[in-house]
Amino acid sequence: MDTNLKIARCKTKALTAVPFFGAPLLGIDVVEVDPVHPQTETMCTDGKRIYYNPDVVDEWSEPELLFVMLHEVAHILWGHHLRRGNRDPMRWNIACDYAINPILVHEVEYTAKVDGVETVVHLTMPEGGLYDVQYRNMAAEKIYDLLPKDDDELPEPQSWGDVMDATGDDGEGLTEEQLDAAKAQVDVMFAQAIEAGKGVGNIPASAQEHYKRMLRPKVDWADKFHTTVKGGRELERSRSKVNRRQYYLHGGVEPSMRLTGVAPLVFAIDTSGSMSEKYLRQSISELNTLIEEVAPEQVTVIQCDYDVTDVQVFQSGDTVEGLNITGGGGTRIKPVFDYIDEHQIPCEQLVYLTDLDIGQEDGLREPDYPVLFITYDKLYAPFGEVVSIN
C-alpha cells in the first residue's frame, strides 16, 4: 500500500475511533524524514511535526502504525518535548515511553466490526515497546528518577516513537518566554482534544485526570479571604459542597471551607493582549471556586483591557459555565476602579486577575476597599496585596 495512503487511513481511523488523539493529529504535519539528515530511523516528533521513515512505515501493519502515531500525539499532548530540562535525552525518552504506553495499551479502545460483529478493539503496540506495570499512572519525571542509575541496567530504548526537544524557527532551543508560550499552546490543544473526545466518550482516564489538574484552582480562596477581607468573617465547614481541591488530591470527600456573610465582591479580569488563553481559562476556574468557597452575596465580574469591555453579575451559588471574553488591547487597571465608583458597584473587596503588565497610570489612587491582585509572575502592584499563582 502507498505510504501516504497508509498514513491517511490511520489519521481517519484515529479521528473516528479515538478523537481525543485523532483531532489534534489532524493539525500536526506528518512528514517524511530529511533524506540527507534524517531526524529518525523510524518515527519521532519535535512537537510541531511527526517525522517518519517510509521504509519502516511500510513494514508496520496499520494497527501498529496507528499505535505509533498516537504515541507521538501523546508526547505532544503531554508536553514531553517541552519538559526535559537538563535531563539526559535517552533516559528522558525511556521515561516518556514508559509513561505513554500503558495509557495506549489499557485506556484506549474503540468498537469496530470484525467479521460482521461489533467488537471492542484495543491498540496493537509494535515489537520493542517499553512497558512496565510499576510505572503505570506515573509522570515521566517521576519515572526518570526511578530508572536504574547504571546505564548498563537500563532497558533497551524503543526503536520508534522518540520525542525531541522543541526548537524555535531558527532551529535553536526555546527561550524561557517561547517555552512558556509553547506550554500554553499545548494546554489549549489538550483542552480541545478533551472536547473532541466527549462525543465518542472514550477519553483515557489518565487524560481526564491530567485535565482536572490543569484546571485545578491555584488559590485557596477561603484562607486568602480569611486574612484579607475587612472585618474578618467567620469560617465554617460545610458538607453541602465537596471540597474539590481535597477530592482531586486525595480522593476523599472533605467539607468545604466557607466564609459566612461576605458582602458583595468585584472580580476583575485582565483581557489585554498580553494575557494568554490559558490564563483566561484559569480565570473562570478561580471565579467559580471563589463563589463556592467564599459564598459572597454577589460577584460583579468586570472585564478590562485598556477600557472596561464587559460587566456581568453573579449571585451566591451561581456557576460560571463560561465567559464571553472580550478585549485583546493594551493593559490598564484604572478603568475598573473608575467604573466601580461611577456606577456605585457594591464592593467590599476587589480581586483582580492580571499579569500586571501596566505602566504609569495618571490619577490611579488606592480605593477605600481591599484589593487583591492575582498574577502569574510579577509581584509588584501600585497598592493592595499580590498573590502569584505560579
Order of helices and strands: HHEEEHHHEEHEHHHEHEEHEEHEEE
Poorly predicted residue ranges: 226-260
- Adjacency order of strands in the biggest sheet: 11-10-9-12-13-14
Distance between the termini: 50 Å
State the share of residues found in helices, binned by percent.
25-40%
In total, the number of domains comes to 2
Taken from the alpha-carbon principal axes, the silhouette is: elongated
Q: From the alpha-carbon coordinates, what is the Rg to the nearest angstrom?
A: 25 Å
Main beta sheet, described?
A: 6 strands, mixed
Structural class: alpha/beta
Write the layout of secondary structure elements.
Blueprint lengths: L2 H15 L1 H8 L2 E4 L10 E3 L3 E4 L1 H6 L2 H16 L11 H18 L2 E6 L2 E6 L17 H7 L15 E2 L12 H22 L7 H11 L5 H8 L6 E8 L1 H7 L4 E5 L5 E6 L6 H18 L3 E7 L3 E8 L18 H9 L6 E5 L17 E5 L9 E4 L2
Parallel strand pairs: 1-3, 2-6, 9-10, 9-12, 12-13, 13-14
Antiparallel strand pairs: 2-3, 4-5, 7-8, 10-11
Helix pairs in contact: 1-2, 1-4, 2-4, 2-7, 4-5, 5-6, 7-8
Describe it.
With 390 residues, this protein is an alpha/beta fold. The protein folds into two domains: 3-208, no CATH class; 221-388, 3-Layer(aba) Sandwich (Rossmann fold). It has helices at 3-17, 19-26, 54-59, 62-77, 89-106, 140-146, 176-197, 205-215, 221-228, 244-250, 277-294, 334-342; strands spanning 29-32, 43-45, 49-52, 109-114, 117-122, 162-163, 235-242, 255-259, 265-270, 298-304, 308-315, 349-353, 371-375, 385-388. The strands form four sheets. A six-stranded mixed sheet has the order 11-10-9-12-13-14. α1 (3-17) crosses α4 (62-77), α2 packs across α4 and α5 crosses α6 (140-146). The radius of gyration is 25 Å and the shape is elongated. The model is unreliable at 226-260 (pLDDT under 50).
